[in-house]
Amino acid sequence: MELWYTEEHTDTVRFSIKIKEQLYSKESPFQQIDVFDSEEFGRFFTLDGLMMVTEKDEFIYHDMIVHVPMAAKPDIKNVLVIGAGDGGTVRELTRYSSIEKIDMVEIDKLVVDVCKEFLPQTAAKFDDPRVTLYFEDGLKFVRSKENEYDLIIVDSTDPIGPGEGLFTREFYGNCYKALNDEGVLVNQHESPYYNEYANSMKRAHKRIRELFPICKVYQAHIPTYPSGHWLFGFASKKVDPVNDLDANRWNALGIKTKYYNTELHKGSFALPNYVKEMIENDNK
Asked: For the chain, does the N or the C end have fewer beta carbons within 10 angstroms?
C-alpha cells in the first residue's frame, strides 16, 4: 500500500509526497504536529497539515532568512528570533562568532522537543551558550522590549492559528520599538503566486512599510513551499540590504553555505514584474 502526504495549496491545487512512514503525530495545546519520513525529501515536519521544514530543502530557507541580514549588517550582536522551533535559524546564527546573544521565542515547547528528537539536523544548536529559549507568545514578549536588538527574525508559520498575531500592525510596531537605531527586521513574507498567500504578503508589506523607512522584499525558490516561489521581507531604520552589502567582508568569514552567496544576495532583491506590481500598487 502506498502512503502519501498531501497538502492543499489552494482549493484546486494539491502537493503530494510519497512517504515511507509517519514517525510522530500529536496535537499540542496550540496545533497539530506531525513528522513523516520520505524517499525524496527525507524527514519532514508539518503543523496543522502545512509543510514547515524538510531535511532536503531546509537549507534554502534558513540560508536566506539569516545570511542576508548578517551580510548586510555584519556587526550584529544581539538577535531576537520569533518562532523557528525547528532550530534551523538558530543553527545558522550560531555560525557567527560576532553574535553575543540569541533570544528565541517559541509559543509551543512541543515543537522544539519534537524537532530535537526527529530533526537533529536543524535542531542542533539550541544548547549553544548564547541561546536563550522562551516558551511564550512572541507578540507579548516583544511588547516589553525597547532599543534592545540589532536584528529581529520573524520565522513564523502562516498567518493562521498561533502565527496570526505575528502579522499585525501592533506586532510590527513593537518590533520597531525593540530594535536599536540601526536595527533590522527580517520576516518570512509568504508566496506571491497564489491569491490567499499573495494577499497575506501584501498586508504584511504594507504594515511594515508604514513603520520602517527602508522596506524591501527578496525571494528564494523552495520546492516544498506553495508554488515554490517564496518571499522574505527586509526592513530597517538605516541599513539598505543591497547598497550596504560588504561582500568582501562576508566572504572573508569563510562560512560555507549550500544556497546563499553574495551574488545571489544582490540578485534576490531583483523581483519579477508581477511581484513588483503587487508591492507598488499596494503602496499607493
From this structure: N
The closest of 102, 185, 136, 184 to 29, measured between CA atoms, is: 136
Cell numbers describing residue 23: 514517525
Distance set, CA 178 to CA 78, 79, 87, 224, 256 (Å): 11, 11, 22, 33, 31
Q: Angle formed by the axes of helices 273-282 and 195-209, to 10°?
A: 50
Return all residues near 18 (Cβ < 8 A) that are at least 6 apart. 2, 3, 4, 38, 39, 40
Show the cell assigned to 20. Answer: 515511507
Q: State how far the alpha carbon of 258 is from the alpha carbons of 45, 53, 261, 264, 274, in Å.
A: 21, 16, 9, 12, 28
Tens digit of pLDDT per residue, the chain (284 long)? 789 999 999 999 999 999 999 999 999 999 999 999 999 999 999 999 999 999 999 999 999 999 999 999 999 999 999 999 999 999 999 999 999 999 999 999 999 999 999 999 999 999 999 999 999 999 899 999 999 999 999 997 554 445 455 567 888 999 999 999 999 999 999 999 999 999 888 988 989 999 999 999 999 999 999 999 999 999 999 999 999 999 999 999 999 999 999 999 999 999 999 999 999 875 54
Which residue numbers are catalytic? 155
